[in-house]
Amino acid sequence: MLELTFIACSLLNGNVCEQKRLTFMENPGSISAFSCGLYGQIEIAKWRRENPNWSVAQGYKCRPAGQMAKA
After folding, report:
1. More confident: 38 or 5
2. Which tens digit of pLDDT belongs to each residue from 12-52?
3. What residues contact 5, with CB distance under 8 A and at least 6 apart?
4. Which end of the chain is more exposed for a tag (fewer CB within 10 A), N or C?
5. Among 54, 56, 60, which Cα is nearest to 40's?
6. How much is the pTM?
7. 3-state DSSP call for residue 55?
8. How many CA atoms lie within 13 A of 60 on its CB side?
9. How far apart are CA 55 and CA 43, in angstroms?
10. Residues near 11 by Cβ (< 8 Å), separated by ≥ 6?
């Protein structure tokens, strides 16, 4: 599993931006920059479709799920 982080900003209130996290399954095999690039874009597109009042800032990061510090 991969955990994807990105910054999303409200289109209704431009002063509100938040860090978002998505967890998703990649193709079986090792986690790579390729799988992050390919599947990360797909998952962000799905998120944008479900959240039309938000825009996504350019750039995102992927890591194996569970490796990010929980606040």
Report:
1. 5
2. 987 899 999 988 766 555 566 677 777 788 889 999 999 99
3. 19, 20, 21, 60, 61, 62, 63, 68
4. C
5. 60
6. 0.73
7. strand
8. 30
9. 14
10. 52, 53, 54, 55
